[in-house]
Design a protein that fits this description.
Layout: H1 3-7, H2 15-36, H3 43-55, E1 60-64, H4 67-77, E2 85-88, H5 95-102, E3 106-109, H6 121-127, E4 132-136, H7 147-157, E5 160-164, E6 172-173, E7 176-177, E8 184-188, E9 202-206, H8 209-218, E10 223-225, E11 228-229, H9 240-249, H10 253-271, E12 285-286, E13 292-295, H11 299-308, H12 338-346, E14 347-350, H13 358-371
Parallel strand pairs: 2-3, 2-4, 4-5, 5-8
Antiparallel strand pairs: 1-9, 6-7, 6-12, 8-9, 10-11, 13-14
Helix pairs in contact: 2-9, 3-9, 4-5, 4-8, 10-13, 11-13
Bound molecules: pyridoxal-5'-phosphate (PLP).
Pyridoxal-5'-phosphate binds at residues 66-68, 92-93, 95-96, 138, 164, 166-167, 188, 190, 200, 202.
């Protein structure tokens, strides 16, 4: 290894590099909000909602405080609560299930497809009961779930299909934008997401005017006017500051997603022929590679070896939700969802972000090739 190679550090994501690229636009947006003193609601939030709805090819977008709030408020706006069952994946970030539980509804897990890591429609079909009200697929790592298969089940049983698109801003399923294919799409703008705010933020998108209006009210204390509250809601609004920053970043999203796809294709080429299991092909979807995830039984050793070479990696996610301590009351032990458990034991996220240089990527690949067969 040359000393130049040794000096290369590759983080899993590099938000500082992203900020540097867009700093003038972001700082202008922040200054505009500060000088307007309109920190809650107002034109910045409206503008972002209009722009994000158009981007997602939906009629409405409602900005909220986080991706978790987006899911919970959508479920509540559909009058989902105690006694209802929602089917989702155990192989996701905890918030997907948490939002369901916060409504008082029951989470029902179904196992995933071993190739795409997304909900397996056959497993979902087996989990449907007379109490099922909605399906909540997650487009994990930016790759849309099998929405045709899930729609067939939802339509057959009169269920709502709600997309957890927190990792899939701009992804497409048979040409249509992620988030636009069901009753509502729920997005997170957590800073490291493909479209990230400067803190917690989220949105729902929908073509259903009634649903949008109900979420708009629920996010703002169930208000219908300044001091009239139609129902008990939440303080889950999107801040104007985040909305302004998101509006500044949104025009760059497609280009950044295209770069992620290029880098993913380059990883696929450079890692072909190794023992690593690479991400599945597109098959009618257009993933936006929120994460580039490979599989290997030697994960722990590879993480250590990469670290020694200055390469950060991650695991999304090491513990499937049915095995989380917080959900122990569900009494779902090891072996209940074997495909999710096997994925949790072997997935490894490699560095991928639009600002990553080819030299950095070559460094990751060279380090990996020394570690795997
Ligand atoms: C799949 C998924 N669902 C929900 C969330 C929750 O979003 P937030 O952190 O904005 O509440 C996240 C991200 O953090 C996520 O990755």
């Amino acid at each position: 290894m040359t000393s130049a190679q040794h000096d290369i550090q590759v983080p899993l994501v590099d938000l500082a590099a992203q900020h540097q690229k867009l700093a003038p636009e972001i700082e202008t947006a922040i200054a505009r909000v500060v000088s307007s003193s309109r920190f809650i609601g107002g034109p910045e939030v409206q503008r972002f909602e209009t722009d994000f709805a158009a981007y997602c090819e939906c009629r409405y977008a409602v900005g909220v405080a986080s991706g978790t709030a987006a899911i919970e408020l959508t479920l509540r706006a559909l009058d989902i609560g105690p006694g209802d069952e929602i089917i989702t994946t155990p192989f996701t970030f905890f918030a997907t299930a948490e939002a369901i539980i916060q409504t008082g509804a029951t989470v029902v897990f179904a196992d995933i497809d071993p190739i795409t890591y997304n909900l397996d429609p056959m497993a979902v079909q087996r989990a449907v009961t007379p109490r099922t009200r909605a399906l909540l697929p997650v487009h994990l790592y930016g790759r849309p779930a099998d929405l045709d298969g899930l729609h067939a089940i939802a339509d057959g049983h009169d269920l709502a299909l709600i997309e957890d698109a927190a990792q899939a801003h701009g992804a497409r399923y048979h040409g249509q934008r992620a988030g636009s294919l069901g009753a509502a799409g729920c997005f997170s703008f957590f800073p490291s997401k493909n479209l990230g705010a400067l803190g917690d933020a989220g949105a729902i998108v929908t073509n259903d005017e009634t649903l949008a209006a109900r979420v708009r009210s629920l996010r703002d204390h169930g208000r219908t006017s300044k001091y009239l509250h139609q129902e008990v809601g939440f303080g889950h609004r999107l801040d104007a500051l985040h909305a302004a920053v998101l509006s500044a970043k949104l025009p760059h999203l497609d280009r950044n997603n295209a770069r992620r796809r290029e880098l993913a294709a380059r990883y696929n080429e450079l890692l072909a022929g190794t023992d690593l299991v690479l991400p599945a092909g597109d098959n009618g979807t257009e993933s936006v590679y929120h994460l580039y995830v490979v599989r290997t039984p030697q994960r722990a050793a590879i993480i250590d070896g990469l670290k020694a070479a200055g390469v950060e990696s991650g695991v999304h996610y090491p513990v499937p939700l049915h095995l989380q301590p917080a959900l122990r009351a569900m009494h779902l032990g090891h072996g209940t969802f074997p495909v999710s458990e096997a994925a949790a034991d072997t997935v490894l996220s490699l560095p991928l972000y639009p600002e990553m240089t080819e030299a950095q990527q070559d460094h990751v690949v060279a380090a990996l090739r020394r570690l795997v067969g």
